[in-house]
Amino acid sequence: NNHGILTLAQETVLKTSSRERSTEISFHSVTDINQFNRIWKKRCKNSQEQFIFLTQLECTKILHIFQAEIALGLLGEFLSVIHEQYHADKSEIIANILYTLT
Question: What HEC string does 30-95 produce?
Fold first, then answer.
């Protein structure tokens, strides 16, 4: 199970550069919906970064974050990102994520 392991290419994609700082998105620090939304909306700059972020989260963490409910708009964003960035080698992870959200 490679949910928590980043490849060098994924780490590079997830680094955001600015004049002030360079920040890497941390998957392990997400414990609630507010942290998830902050990373999803502000630190993931495009659908590729959102896809990597979503597919690197463990399903147990997704279940904990969205145990009460998931906003319809955010679910739609998940589906759009998955549709745009789908890779056959991520099929099992995507299926697990979608199953977790049901």
Answer: CCCHHHHHHHHHHHCCCHHHHHHHHHHCCHHHHHHHCCCCCCHHHHHHHHHHHHHHCCHHHHHHHH
For the stretch 39-59, pLDDT in tens is 999 999 999 999 999 999 999
pTM here is 0.72
74/98 Cα distance (integer angstroms): 13
Q: Looking at residues 61-67, what average pLDDT do you find?
A: 92
What is the Cα–Cα distance from 27 to 50, expressed in whole angstroms?
Answer: 12
10 Å CB burial of residue 53 (0-12, 13-18, 19+) is: buried
